[in-house]
Amino acid sequence: MKAIELFSGIGGFRIACDSLGIETIWANDINAKAAAVYRAQFGSESFHEGDINHLLDTVPDHDILTGGFPCQPFSSAGKKLGIEDMRGTLFEKIVDILERKSPRYFVLENVKRLLSMDQGKHFATILDALSRVGYLVEWRVLNAIDFGLAQNRERIVIIGRKDHTPNSHLCTREDIGELTPHQIRQAADASSWKNIEDHGAKFNTWGLALHGKFFHAKINRFSERQKDVKLHEVLERHPDARFFFTEDTLERIKNSDEVNRYYSGVEILYNQKGGARMGYSIFGINGVAPTLTCTASRHYERYRVGNEYRRLTNIEYARIQGFPDHHCDTASVYDQYTLYGNAVPPALVAWALRKVIHHEGTTFQPSPGIESPAALETQMDLI
Ligand SMILES: C[S@@+](CC[C@H](N)C(=O)[O-])C[C@H]1O[C@@H](n2cnc3c(N)ncnc32)[C@H](O)[C@@H]1O
Where are the beta strands (DSSP E) in the chain? Predict the structure, then answer.
């Protein structure tokens, strides 16, 4: 199968596709530093640097469209959903390509907050657009923590496919087992689904949409959960002195409240007095990291490692996001934080891509590493 990778960044989708034998034939990003990493890792042949708005005509035919699109608010606050809402946005370009090229599948990734932004209106517009260009859309919230990564990072993956019947959703029988028998019947009967424009303030963690209608439910358990990995298991043994701030942090602790609690798997030792719960915190290494982001403030978060205090290294960022240690070596250490913080953990989107491959019935040879073939055996298309 052939994929394109929109908003490719440093190639989170690319690594996942490579590991599953899916060929990436075209990729694009506007950011020069991300582009340099992408070219260094994957070659320049398939990579097109620049603004997607000017490159639409170069997109080739493909089977799977992938992309972690930037989250831009849509303009209209009106009740009616429609293409006007997303005019001029980067998401509109995705819909544009889907209409022009009609790939059989897409896999998109974004922040979980998308489900509740603007009282659900934002996601409703997305679902409406994707389902009206002929796709059965299935979304699901995933957490990096479930994929053997030492990070609490909740993301939504949105999978679409052209060839479908409403009840052929991709979540496993075990996942769906959390639903009541009534919900299971409803999920399988698209005629009972609600109009997307009658959505509530927030979309649930799993759902389906087709032709402007949707069904959703709260699924908490992740049946393919891998072994927990804690931060101390992935730390570098002898990081460079520049990552340490021991004196300075000891001073800061004087102005902090002791917490010593875990929140969503993250061990918080101290919070700055009066600060937000996650702001200016000092973390322990017995839990996982909080969501790595691309903002500079994260560089000043401290971790207590033994008797010393330091920030995470660029290599630790790579590990926590599931990238090879030296993936971003072409960038400065400072820029690497941003590039990794912006990226998608490959294992997380590999999960979604495996669903696509399974649906396609393609025989493939997974390369060792990212995905576990055992997970495939538990997959069920139909209930
Ligand atoms: C959330 S990041 C995606 C990261 C990617 N999934 C990864 O694994 O690194 C969004 C990307 O969209 C890119 N971007 C933003 N505006 C763009 C545009 N107009 N054309 C092309 N790429 C754009 C950014 O440079 C950024 O790398």
Answer: 2-6, 23-29, 47-49, 64-67, 105-111, 136-143, 154-161, 194-195, 206-210, 213-217, 256-263, 266-272, 281-283, 302-305, 308-310
